[in-house]
Amino acid sequence: MRHYFNKQVSFDETEAITAIRQSHYPLHSKADLGPLMDRIGDARVVMLGEASHGTHEYYMWRAHISKRLIEEKGFNFIAVEGDWPECYRLNRFIKGYNQESKSAFKELQTFRRWPTWMWANWEIVALADWMLEHNTGLAANSKVGFYGLDVYSLWESIENIMQYLKRVDPAALKVAQNAIRCFEPYRKEEGSSYARAAQFVPDLCQKEVVELLSEIQRRLPTYNTDHENVFSTEQNALVAVNAEKYYRAMVTGGPHSWNVRDRHMADTLERLLTFHGKDAKAIVWAHNTHVGDARATDMTNEGMYNIGELARLEHHDKGVVLVGFGSWRGSVTAARAWGAPMKEMELPQAQKGTWEYLLHAAGENNKLLIMNDLVRNDMLMEHHLGHRAVGVIYNPIYEQYSNYVPSVIPMRYDAFIYLDNTKALHPLHLEPHGHETPQTYPFGV
């Protein structure tokens, strides 16, 4: 999805730059996160964004914030823009339940869906090892979890259901086999072939996945094994239902498929909060386009919503804090096309007149902004400024034509972390320099 920045908007850059200079907090180290912790307070949900899926500093700062939220404020889990089956395996590892996996590095090698670099990277290895150490010795109901919110893992989710049923309920296995048999001819192209076929047979495999979910939910009370595995089995069935719905929505494109995906992520977050108890607290890692309230962007004009907006509506009484991230220039890990090899690419200087340009003009230092300090500025509240959004598919030569979401930033986020110069993420399957672990491990800024 492309967003275009309207350069014809009349805007007083000098006033905006002055407002940023007067209101930001310098961000040099983890010790400078105090104002953000104060803003978070007793909030139940904290969402941490990113302006790309391939920037080292976004992952590292989100890890620093997450560690403090877990240690100081008792947050129960991290939920990410990733697939449920793979993230659930990592969740079992960091809780010390997976005795077969000896290291986070080996566990993350199982993340095979493109773009693998989003979660199979050294930055996540460091976070997973820290979470494993944190959880060691804690009671089962006190261990901090790691879960995936996304909807793409249709085949993997059905296969996981089949593996579970083989162990605990072989009689129910036939329903899962019917579902995967229906989808099998469309597996090769990760849903696109299913979407094309659904143009001619609209309910192609819908009946099979709905029956699978119904059967799982009907028999759940009889599954008295590992409580979290029972929850995961039902979640995999929900993924199958919503993935099928998502792939059918791909036929028409536009806002419907986006909304199916973000509604699934929001519903998964709600299920996780319920599973962890009435006082549970959640940390979410996802792209700014999912985290930053869609009502403060041009997305709302197209009928689109996102998990940030839905969380604010659902949990406004218990507190939701949305934190955006951005940078002016640097490098980024991305690919030129879907499924193409990843590359380290240049991230050019932000376009003139954009939010990142103004932040750089206000001083070439990293900054933390608390939006309570900016909402009183009428000009910033009345203008949609371009705000950079780089996806897994990126080409720097098109930077001036796309990759900017018109946004009223003080409304879109509760806080914003600006990093002037950033560098590319460190994927696991790129050999570290000198055959050693990069200096991103353990945490360091």
Question: What do these coordinates show?
Answer:
By secondary structure, this protein is of the alpha/beta class. It has two domains: 13-136 and 281-435, EreA/ChaN-like  fold; 154-260, no CATH class. The protein contains 17 helices and eleven strands. The strands form two sheets. Strands 1, 2, 3, 4, 5, 6, 7, 8 and 11 form a nine-stranded mixed beta sheet that branches. The chain has a two-stranded antiparallel ribbon with strand order 9-10. α7 runs antiparallel to α11. The radius of gyration is 22 Å and the shape is globular. The model is unreliable at 1-9 and 431-445 (pLDDT under 50).
In sequence order, what are the helices and strands, one letter per element? HEHEHEHHHEHHHHHHEHHEEHEHEEHE
Low-confidence sequence ranges: 1-9, 431-445
Number of helices: 17
Instruction: Quickly count the domains.
Output: 2
What's the CATH topology label of the largest domain? Answer: EreA/ChaN-like  fold
**Helix fraction bin:** 40-55%
Ends: how far apart? 32 Å
Radius of gyration: 22 Å
The biggest sheet amounts to: 9 strands, mixed
Shape: globular
Please name the CATH architecture of the largest domain: 3-Layer(aba) Sandwich
Give the name of the CATH superfamily of the largest domain. EreA-like (biosynthetic domain)
Mean pLDDT: 90
Keywords: Methyltransferase, Transferase
GO molecular function, one term: methyltransferase activity
Protein name: Protein-L-isoaspartate O-methyltransferase
Organism: Chitinophaga parva
